[in-house]
Amino acid sequence: MFRADVHCHSTCSDGSDAPSALIDLAASLGLQGISITDHDSVEAYTPNLFAQAQEKEILLLVGVELSTELKGESVHVLGYGVQEERLRSFLEEMQKRRSERNKQILAKLAKKGILIEEGELPQQKVVGRPHIAELLVLKGVCRTWQEAFEVYLKDGASCYVPGIKYTPQEAIAKIHEAKGKAVLAHPHFLPRRFVQRELLSLPFDGIECYYGRLPKQQELPWLEIAKQKGWIATGGSDYHGKVKPHISLGCSWVDEAIFMKLLNP
Ligand code: AMP
Ligand code: ZN
Ligand code: FE
Ligand code: FE
């Protein structure tokens, strides 16, 4: 049976597996397709990665997960089948805003006597709150990653900085300009009324209905919305490797028909 996981993260953002390790893992799990949806980056998609996927008989779909904000809520927008060169300057701007924001988060932590130098963050283009959480644990400030989010980093917490500031509308438009399909990521993380009032009228092409280990029952409202709107019902694990050890690659997936809708312009 064809199964494709179209939501996972590599070391190009906040996952712990390199892109090539994700292809190997997908092959070993018997998946036929994958999309690596790093936060604000398509750096994973090198010619070598496509060659490796082909060799392993894995269909590789270009994907990205864009961080946006609307009325104080973090909204993640997945883009599939995007033409990388048409998105490059937008992603560079996102990455610049991210590093500015990280500096502001470190400044807020410093005010609380928690000293982390910018140089201690991973030296890569996309650095986010999970990396800062990891450092807080490493330094013994927090016991766990979850605690770091609860006390300091989660939306609205004491060292939270909103930051990136594109709207979902802008992200959808960018994805469409890059000839991709725009999909609302993990809507179940958002207040239901907010989704209804603010997001269902936007020109998404799809909505993520299957997610991680979300119970079947909780998929149903989103599947119903997908049907009503004529949107593609997508899904994936949101695998991050050792960062979220309870989530395994392929624990949510899409079938061949859905994968092909995302793959073909
Ligand atoms: P950033 O991209 O820097 O805004 O960080 C967002 C990432 O942080 C998300 O993809 C989640 O993996 C993680 N995250 C956000 N909020 C929480 C939370 N309350 N608890 C744990 N992880 C979170
Ligand atoms: Zn992530
Ligand atoms: Fe997300
Ligand atoms: Fe994700």
Based on Cα principal axes, name the global outline.
globular
By DSSP, the count of extended strands is: 8
The portion of residues forming beta strands comes to 5-15%
As laid out across the biggest beta sheet, the strand order is 4-5-6-7-8
Mean pLDDT metric: 96
Percent helix among the residues?
40-55%
Name a few traits of the molecule.
five-stranded mixed beta sheet, binds fe (iii) ion, 265 residues, single chain, binds zinc ion, alpha/beta, binds adenosine monophosphate, 8 strands, three-stranded parallel beta sheet
Structure commentary:
There is one protein chain. With 265 residues, the protein is an alpha/beta fold. The protein is 40% helix and 14% strand. The protein has 9 helices and 8 strands. The strands form 2 sheets. A 5-stranded mixed β-sheet has the order 4-5-6-7-8. It has a 3-stranded parallel β-sheet with strand order 1-2-3, covered by helices on one side. Helix 7 links the parallel strand 6 and strand 7. The longest helix is centred in the middle third of the chain and has 28 residues, at 84-111. The protein is globular and about 55 Å long. The relative contact order is 0.18. The site of one fe (iii) ion has 4 residues, from loops. One fe (iii) ion binds at residues 7, 9, 65, 238.
